[in-house]
Specification:
By secondary structure, the protein is an alpha/beta fold. It has eight helices and five strands. It has a single domain, classed as Rossmann fold (3-Layer(aba) Sandwich), CATH 3.40.50. Helix 2 runs antiparallel to helix 3, helix 3 runs parallel beside helix 5 and helix 4 packs across helix 7. Bound molecules: ligand Z5A.
């Protein structure tokens, strides 16, 4: 396996937390620091991964077993890591990813109720010790996230979940951040966009300047 030369940054958060709104900002910030940046997402990021995303987010399989959901997330991740993330990092490109394995703990663990040890087993099998260098956790109450996301017209299979579901997802993200405070930086996403971006900038400068 090639050694990592670029850095790997992930954005996480519940529905409506503002990841899409902030990804371009983060990319621009890194570029002004002179970095070459690859923007990608999970589930997805490769042709096969994007097909899996369609299955996961679409409505053709509404009653999908939670184990199937978890394994499909990791199947897409395997493809993504092998074909895109690791080669880019090895070439010195910084990779900025909209969600990664923390989302599996938060959604399939906290949200669906799958035991952490099962997720940990898949994580260790696929990633070994590989982890993001920095994770920006956009945190806000589930009710506010849903209110913001409610402006969208066609909700996907996850976006139809209840406020209680997203409260569990949020709680799991916060527990992950408590366990790994150096890697996972909590950003108060309930604030106005410019204030959110100020916090993001500070976190990136703290980690990489
Ligand atoms: N998933 C999983 O279960 N397990 C896994 O392992 C992985 C993923 C990897 C797809 O994710 C789903 O996959 C996801 C979890 C699951 N489902 N959910 N929920 P996604 O990231 O593609 O989908 P998403 O969560 O719905 O993200 P999104 O569509 O990119 O939305 P967002 O990034 O959270 O929010 P936004 O679109 O940037 O903002 C929402 C609205 O709020 C919008 O109108 C903005 O203008 C507004 N906004 C944003 N920030 C602010 C502030 N600061 N103030 C006021 N208004 C704001």
């Amino acid at each position: 396996m090639s050694a990592r030369q670029g850095n790997f940054i992930t954005l996480e958060g519940i529905e409506g937390a503002g990841k899409s709104s902030n990804l371009k900002y983060v990319k621009g910030l890194l570029q002004t620091m002179g970095r070459e940046v690859l923007l990608t997402r999970e589930p997805g990021g490769t042709p096969l991964g994007e097909e899996i995303r369609g299955v996961l987010l679409g409505h053709r399989h509404t009653g999908m077993a939670q184990e199937t959901e978890l394994l499909l997330m990791f199947a897409a991740r395997a493809e993504h890591l092998t074909r895109k993330i690791r080669p880019a990092l090895a070439a010195g490109t910084w990779v900025l990813c909209d969600r990664f394995t923390d989302a599996s703990y938060a959604y399939q663990g906290g949200g669906r109720g799958i035991g952490w040890q099962r997720i940990r087993t898949l994580e260790q099998w696929l990633q070994g010790t590989f982890q993001p260098d920095l994770t920006l956790l956009l945190d806000l109450p589930a009710a506010l996230g849903l209110e913001r996301a409610g402006r969208r017209s066609a909700p996907d299979r996850f976006e139809r979940e209840t406020e209680q579901f997203f409260t569990r997802v949020r709680g799991t993200y916060l527990r992950l951040a408590e366990r790994e405070p150096e890697r996972i930086r909590i950003i108060d996403a309930s604030r106005p966009l410019l204030k959110v971006q100020e916090q993001i900038r500070a976190a990136i400068l703290l980690s990489f300047a």
